[in-house]
Amino acid sequence: MANKDLLASIDAFTRTHGMAESTFGREALNDWAFSRDLRAGRRVWPETEAKVRKFMTSYIASEAQNAA
């Protein structure tokens, strides 16, 4: 269930920002196959999920600062 929620968040993020999933994985975790592996059932540790969510939040904040 948590993987589905995380994957949905990643999908929304990449669509919103026009970012390829491989780019997202590489920038968030230095793992270009992260989203693909997540779809295939990869287990995600809480620390990894926190890192991914922090990346998304920081990216949005950074983008907002650049637009201001």
- Which oligomeric form is depicted? single chain
SSE class: mainly alpha
Main beta-sheet strand count, sense and barrel state: none
Q: Distance between termini?
A: 37 Å
Alpha carbon gyration radius: 12 Å
Global mean pLDDT: 92
How many helices does DSSP assign? 4
Helix content: over 70%
- List the secondary-structure elements in sequence, H or E: HHHH
Q: Strand fraction band? A: under 5%
The count of β-strands is 0
Shape, principal axes of CA atoms: globular
Point out poorly predicted stretches.
none
Labels describing this entry:
mainly alpha, 68 residues, globular, single chain
Compile the SSE list and pairings:
Elements: H1 2-17, H2 21-29, H3 34-39, H4 46-67
Tell me what the structure shows.
This protein has 68 residues and is mainly α. The chain has 4 helices and no strands. It has helices at residues 2-17, 21-29, 34-39, 46-67. The radius of gyration is 12 Å and the shape is globular.
Task: Write a brief structural summary.
With 68 residues, the chain is an all-alpha fold. The protein is 78% helix and 0% strand.
